[in-house]
Design goal:
Layout lengths: L1 H19 L6 E9 L10 E13 L2 E14 L5 E6 L2 E9 L2 E10 L4 E8 L3
C-alpha cells in the first residue's frame, strides 16, 4: 500500500513539474498578406515584429508604442509568414516596397499558434 501511495505522489509531482515548464515554450505567429483590391497574395512583403513598449486602454481602444524589432521575415510567394516568438504582446508591422502598410497588436501564447491574415492596400 505504501508503494502505491509513494508512486501516486511521485506521479503527481512529476506531472506538475512537467506542466510548469510548458509556460515558457515559444508560440508561433502565422499569417498571410493579401492585396485587398485584387485578393492576390503579396510576396516579398516584410513582416516585422516589435516589442511592445506600453499599452493603455482608452475607451476600448489600445494605444501602444513600438519598441525594438525582435523578428523579421519576408513573405513567401503565397504571402505567408511564420515566426516563432516568446509568449507576450507584440506589434506586427507589414511593409511593402519600403512603405509601412499595416500595424497590428498581437498576443502570443505559450505553445500555441496565433493566426492573423492581413489585407493591405498596395502603394
Amino acid at each position: 500500500m505504501r508503494r502505491f501511495l509513494f508512486l501516486g505522489v511521485f506521479l503527481v509531482v512529476l506531472s506538475t513539474l512537467g506542466l510548469a515548464g510548458c509556460g515558457n515554450q515559444p508560440g508561433v505567429l502565422e499569417g498571410t498578406v493579401t492585396d485587398v483590391q485584387s485578393g492576390q497574395p503579396v510576396a516579398q512583403a516584410q513582416a516585422l515584429v516589435y516589442a511592445l513598449e506600453g499599452v493603455d486602454e482608452i475607451t476600448h481602444l489600445d494605444t501602444y508604442q513600438k519598441g525594438e524589432a525582435v523578428e523579421k521575415q519576408t513573405t513567401a510567394e503565397d504571402g505567408a509568414f511564420s515566426i516563432s516568438l516568446a509568449p507576450g504582446r507584440y506589434v506586427l508591422s507589414i511593409r511593402v516596397e519600403g512603405l509601412e502598410v499595416e500595424n497590428r497588436l498581437v498576443e502570443i501564447k505559450s505553445g500555441r499558434k496565433t493566426l492573423t491574415d492581413l489585407g493591405v492596400m498596395l502603394p
